[in-house]
Specification:
The structure is a homodimer.
Chain A (H helix, E strand, L loop, with lengths): L6 H17 L7 H12 L6 H8 L3 H13 L3 E5 L7 E5 L1 H19 L4
Antiparallel strand pairs in A: 1-2
Helix pairs in contact in A: 1-5, 2-4, 3-4
The structure holds a DNA duplex.
Chain lengths: 116, 116
DNA sequence: CGCAATCGTTTCGGTCCCGTATCATTAGGC
DNA sequence: GCCTAATGATACGGGACCGAAACGATTGCG
């Protein structure tokens, strides 16, 4: 069952969610960072720098820098793959899970408030 | 008629939209910039730096800088208010309108593709 | 063993953004 | 005319990010 949404509703939803996040003083993530974060939390592991770079069609340094920032925010963590020590496995954190869960609730709430 | 959405659907929608934008090489806007852009295009004018700063609960330089960047991207334009020359009126552009319209269509499309 | 391939990170010069404080310009009360 | 208030922009030091290139570490093939 697809979610039916008119363009005006879609834009209003996006605005209300962004406004809420900004006003709440949440980290000012870029679209790239958000794409990475949500992919880590929604798609099945394992996640690697290379895999994310391919999925987003960006270069590896873009992923590395985004992970640097989000690691400082405790939203994700990195760990060497002991089976192939060239790899770095990107893992979820408790704080990141809470952030994503809360973010989903905000979207749901703002969608519920939409006028027809 | 509110839009019903489960948290998992909401997060998946956000991910798919962000992924699409990143992959398409669209400007990597931050949440703040997106909140400003959508407010300019969805809320009734006039829009001023001070008004946006209050609406977003951020400082004026934050708005000025975001407008600098989005002006360079041709997404918005600035013009002195001739009736009160202290004010700067932030206005829409053709490119910005196309960007917002396209963005709305992307959200609608990704919502339609959502699994139940 | 040696060597090429792969992985993630780092470097480089340059741009953008941050928060705080200050600025120039304009308006309006007196 | 003067002085205060208001507006948006700017200066500052610091941090994050960009793309392109080079880097060290690790693997696995010949």
């Amino acid at each position: 069952m697809p979610v039916m949404l008119r363009p005006s509703q879609a834009l209003r939803l996006w605005q209300q969610v962004c406004l809420y996040e900004v006003r709440a003083g949440m980290p000012d993530l870029t679209e790239r960072q958000l794409a990475i974060l949500l992919t880590i939390y929604l798609d099945p592991p394992p996640h690697t720098v290379r895999g994310l770079a391919e999925k987003l069609k960006v270069t590896k340094p873009v992923i590395t820098r985004a992970l640097d920032t989000m690691s400082a925010l405790k939203l994700v963590s990195r760990r060497r793959d002991e089976r192939d020590r060239r790899n770095v496995l990107i893992r979820r954190t408790v704080e990141g899970a809470l952030f994503v869960e809360r973010f989903g609730d905000v979207i749901v709430e703002k969608a519920r408030e939409l006028s027809p």
